[in-house]
Specification:
It comes from Dreissena polymorpha (Zebra mussel). The protein is mostly helical. It contains three helices and no strands. Helix 2 runs antiparallel to helix 3. The longest helix has 37 residues. The radius of gyration is 16 Å and the shape is elongated. The model has no long low-confidence stretch (mean pLDDT 84).
Length: 70
C-alpha cells in the first residue's frame, strides 16, 4: 500500500511482477535449503503484492467505467 502511494500504481505493478518473476527463476537454481526458503518467501511476498495491486487497481478502473457510462 505504501509503495502504491509513493511510486504510483503502474510502477508498483511492474516492480511486483518483475520481482516475482526473478525469484521464480531463482527457485530453479541449485542452492542450499535456507536460500531456497528465502526465494520461496520472496515469491510469496511479491505475489501477495500483485494481488493487492490488482484488487485496488481493478476497483478504480471499474468505478471509472461506471462514471463514463452515465
Amino acid at each position: 500500500m505504501l509503495l502504491i502511494d509513493v511510486i504510483g500504481r503502474r510502477y508498483t505493478g511492474a516492480v511486483n511482477f518483475v520481482g516475482c518473476s526473478v525469484f521464480f527463476l531463482l527457485i530453479q537454481v541449485h542452492v542450499s535449503q535456507e536460500v531456497l526458503t528465502f526465494f520461496i518467501f520472496m515469491v510469496r511476498g511479491f505475489s501477495t503484492g500483485i494481488f493487492n495491486f490488482v484488487y485496488i487497481y481493478t476497483t478504480e478502473v471499474r468505478g471509472y467505467a461506471c462514471v463514463v457510462r452515465l
